[in-house]
Write a structure and sequence with these properties.
It is a single chain. The protein is α/β, with parallel strands linked by helices and about 230 residues long. The chain has a five-stranded parallel β-sheet with strand order 2-1-3-4-5, sandwiched between helices. A four-stranded antiparallel β-sheet has the order 6-7-8-9, with helices on one face. Helix 2 runs parallel beside helix 3 and helix 7 packs across helix 8. The longest helix has 16 residues. The relative contact order is 0.10.
Length: about 230
């Protein structure tokens, strides 16, 4: 899942890139509107985060150009402009959502996941043959969600990759090195501590009691295991 971040503020741009990469998304970035359009054509992102006030070509113009060729690519405006007319104009131009600066990281991730779910269709339509069961949890790779009874749990792409890898290797130990290679990628250079920290956060989402996990079990000194 690849996301394009277009913002002329280098601090905001870098912060968004770091946030999205930590959630498991592939990210490319652009400092202005013209560079954003080039990346849309070259990288074919799955979603665009688009600042409005950019030099040369503003976000509105970029959105118009994208919509001429692609009516379905999800676009989220991110802007300090808060007037209602600006939000309405952005949505009328074809944006899918609008996030106002300053924003919280949870809000950004939640809105991205919501827009991506809408773009794919309803979970019931998109998750055919992609759901699997881990304990009392039903995991949907298509909708980036898990469900326990009536409880819906939103997951990131890397969360789903970790769960899918453990599920495919049910009953066997998945070593930290394998998790790094398959869920982060060989071009990424984290430490085994990166895996442990991410698994700890994932357990807080999916385990009934994270202190005594039933789905992601630790094999000390080696890695993790899911026992069906």
């Amino acid at each position: 899942m690849r996301i394009l971040v277009a913002d002329d503020d280098p601090h905001i741009r870098r912060g968004l890139v770091d946030l999205l990469e930590s959630e498991g998304y592939e990210v490319c970035s652009a400092p202005d509107g013209k560079a954003a359009l080039r990346l849309v054509q070259r990288e074919a992102p799955d979603l665009v985060l688009l600042d409005i006030m950019m030099p040369g070509m503003d976000g509105y113009a970029v959105c118009r150009e994208i919509r001429r060729d692609n009516e379905t690519l999800p676009i989220l405006f991110i802007s300090a402009r808060s007037e209602e007319i600006d939000r309405v104009l952005g949505l009328e131009l074809g944006a899918d959502d609008y996030i106002q600066k300053p924003f919280g990281t949870r809000e950004v991730i939640a809105r991205i996941r919501a827009v991506l779910r809408r773009a794919r269709g309803t979970p019931q339509q998109s998750a055919v043959a992609r759901d699997y069961v881990m304990g009392d949890l039903v995991v949907s790779t298509a909708s980036l969600r898990a469900q326990r009874g009536e409880q819906i749990i939103d997951l990131g792409p890397r969360d789903v990759r970790i769960l899918s890898l453990l599920h495919r290797n049910a009953g066997n130990v998945v070593r930290r090195e394998q998790l790094l290679n398959e869920c982060w990628g060989q071009e990424f250079v984290p430490s085994s501590r990166t895996v442990d920290q991410h698994v700890s956060r994932l357990r807080k989402l999916i385990e009934i009691n994270p202190a005594e996990p039933e789905i992601i079990r630790t094999v000390h000194g080696v890695g993790y295991r899911y026992d069906p």
